[in-house]
TrEMBL record:
Protein name per the record: Starch-binding associating with outer membrane
Keywords carried by this UniProt record: Cell outer membrane, Membrane, Signal
Provenance organism: Paludibacter jiangxiensis
PROSITE patterns hit by this protein: PROKAR_LIPOPROTEIN
InterPro entries: SusD_RagB_dom, TPR-like_helical_dom_sf
Cell location: Cell outer membrane
Domain RagB/SusD stretches: 216-538
Signal peptide: 1-21
Primary localization: membrane
Pfam families, A to Z: SusD_RagB
GO CC, alphabetical: cell outer membrane
Family, per entry: Belongs to the SusD family.
Amino acid sequence: MKKRFKYILFSALMSTLLVSCYDLDVPVTTQITPDTYPKDSAQFVASAGVVYAALRGNYAMDYYFVTELSSDEAILPARGGNWYDNKGYRNFHYHEWTPDYGWAVSCWDWLSRIIGYDNQTMYILQSNMPEGTTKNRMLSELRMVRALAYFYMMDLYGNVPIVTTYGDFEQKPKTDRKEVFNFIESEIKACLPNLTSTVNAVTYGYPTKYMAYALLAKMYLNAEYYTGTKRYDDCIAACDNVITSGKYTLATTSNYLQMFYPNNGPSTPEFIFAIPFDPSYTALGGTNGMMYRARYDVPRSEKAKFGLPFTPSAPESTLPEFYANFDDPNDVRNKQWLTGLQYMNDGVTPIMLTVKKKAYDQYYAGSDPDANMTYQVNLTPNIVLRQDSILFDCGNDEIAWNMGYRNIKFYPDASSTSRNQNNDMPVFRYSDILLMKAEAILRGGNATNGQTALSLVNDVRSKRTTSTPWTAVTLDDLYKERAREFAYETWRRNDMIRFGKFEGKWGFKKDASVYRRIFPIPTAAMIKNPKLTQNPGY
């Protein structure tokens, strides 16, 4: 195996896992008790595995769609009714989601599930594990996973309830976002002394000290938005703790793309914290646990090019507004995109399709609609709702299916027969540490260790492009650089809000409502917990 950390539960644990509820306000319960399980070191590890399986659960699907399709980075229109899915993808593009809709609901359930399992697991391990360094480290790692889940919940929903005690069934009202922020910060600081500073294959996939500092840096960078108080010097200090450790290096120009390949893992030099994916992993009940990027992003006509054992669906693409950021011809990050005329991997052999003229263009009005025509696949930049603008529909022909440039950063996995890929997904990368520090300096923080915003950005760019280093950098420049660096890594919505861009216009979206920066509390959650109140605007 390429990685040790598989997040698979022992069959004994799986057979006894009887979950009653995943609401944040009604903690998860099972038949497992400290009297029956776990009793030895292998069982301690297995018990903790449920939390990591829960974290993996909906990260690459529901959370990905929430953060990317609500931004200018990705769009998933219908094609002849395909992928309309009861307005799901349309509503996220138009910013018309509701308290009962799609991923706004499933992400609440997913994050509540992580927190519930975490609380229960920590209670069991606290009761059963012998005192010592191992226990302190495992419990701190679990607290860090819970802190990450609360960070996502705070970011997505604003004010949320805080539940930290297993067995506490009292319904909780929402806690003010500033207090949630302070809670997460205090949790991270409490965990830091017990987290490992070792970075290797054994610690891969687990929270380390540097994962904790990275999460603190992300919180402090966004603190003015979350709490009304600027924390840019704190962001810089957190970044410095990662930088001065010497544990991480930037991927070079030649291996930037390989960071996201199916065989990525512990040897990836930039991954501070990543979520491992593997088709052999067992999905936790109630989650999908899948990583499906090729299914959504690879054109149907390019199955052979990537050696895929399945025909991809190809509904998702980017928007011209986002792709415009990739304007440096010498930048290796351009190669994460499929654009224009398509060729096999030799770069010479054109990808050709033979179809009926009416199948190529459903509006063909000639006298021979059933005659065959052969054409080279050509991905065009614009999304045009040719068939039905109300139904978000481009049409069901080759012209429609080839609309939009496609992202293949998480490179298609030819070894998977289930569409589920081996590519691990990074949560925090070293380049993010450098660019967060640069941004914090630009926003008024004090430069440290001889590094300036310009030098930090040029450090990253020196490993991504052969173009001349920049001589100056602005916040707008940095915003565009983050688009290039973190495309399809779930940070675009977060960046857009912080830079004041989320209310802008892109694609077909014109809604400028500020309240859309946070998602609604699901109706089902409010029914189960009457102490919850709906977020403004919903």
